[in-house]
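[step 3/7] fold_predict: job queued, chain A
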Amino acid sequence: MKPIQVGLLGIGTVGSGTFNVLQRNQEEIQRRAGRGIEITMVADLDVARAQSIVGPNVKVVNDARAVIANPEIDIVIELIGGYGIAKALVMEAIAAGKHVVTANKALLAVHGTEIFAAASAKGVMVAFEAAVAGGIPIIKALREGLTANRIQWIAGIINGTTNFILSEMRDKGLDFDVVLKEAQRLGYAEADPTFDIEGVDAAHKATLMSAIAFGIPVQFDKAYVEGITKLGAVDIRYAEQLGYRIKLLGITKRTDKGVELRVHPSLVPAKRLIANVEGAMNAVVVHGDAVGTTLYYGKGAGSEPTASAVIADLVDITRLHTADPLHRVPHLAFQPDAMSDVAVLPMSEVVTSYYLRLRVADEAGVLAQVTGLLAGAGVSIDAVLQREADEVGGEGATSTDLIILTHETREGTMNDVIAQMQGLPSVLAPITRIRKEELN
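[step 4/7] structure written:
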């Protein structure tokens, strides 16, 4: 059988990895897919560089639309990124009857509903395993492997840059700004790291996992997003003393009131496997009612790990290329006419527990004032850690740190009580609040 023809838009880090792995493992891949898979056309603005990667037998152009217009091309791989031209090209490829493989989590998190509807109407597939957690096959696990389960919650370390920074802060006792510069020097962080360090990249990925887990539309605009820029080495140290590690988690959870969808730093018990995921690695924990808790771990980025996921999508499409579109696996796991309109909860309605750090005057009665406000709001205390003043500010210091762990309470309630505590004359600096996730 004639090999299936693939057009590649963008041959940067992931694109070159995809081409190389496909070439290196072509015999193995063909045995699995049932026919050959060949990248026969590439679009890239730097034609000479692209041609040097793919060699003389692959046609290279500088116009992506020429790839889409080629009637020989069956599948288009979009690796350009972003929301702009990438969206136009994906929609044009679908309109031309091409299947699409993309690693573009930002595009799908924001415009996925429109893109998947267009693909369904045209009878083509949009595959996106590489959009979440790089080489970890988490999309396939959620969409197919766990299909018997009513999924209860997902929590993931799904951004390698922030996990590397937090690991370094913990290991070396350094503050965020220092470690960010080192991460940029080593190539773990971009020159403009905003999407990573502010939690946006993780929120794109959490949005996609949430839609697949609960059968709801992709709704990135409803996600709560908080990054790691305000974390200090002192909080990582205190968390450690209390038996916790701080990780940036993407969390989505089914509750009686709706679906939680949030990204923020979290205290995780050090005994949990996910708390021990270090460096730039990714991990996702999924809890289903039948299977219990499952963990998926691996490289969340990089040339060949991400290429592994792109090629898995190519193989899936090749196998299902001639199948009745109605009998293919739905894009978001649930049949399009069976999607749910369950609301995504505002952050103020989320129930979780908290770590609070207060810089307070070193004087009698302060602890009673603070705990009195918490008790008055109905917030139950799990643990209190009070540092000696000279431990915090040196000999003769007049202020100290008060660390409080709470039991579960509503975020809105915690917002109110923090505002009250902040108003106390004995509270000398902005209160640090980090959410705590037991993940049990």
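[step 5/7] annotate
The longest strand covers residues 244-254.
Residues 235 and 248 are 14 Å apart (CA to CA).
exit 0
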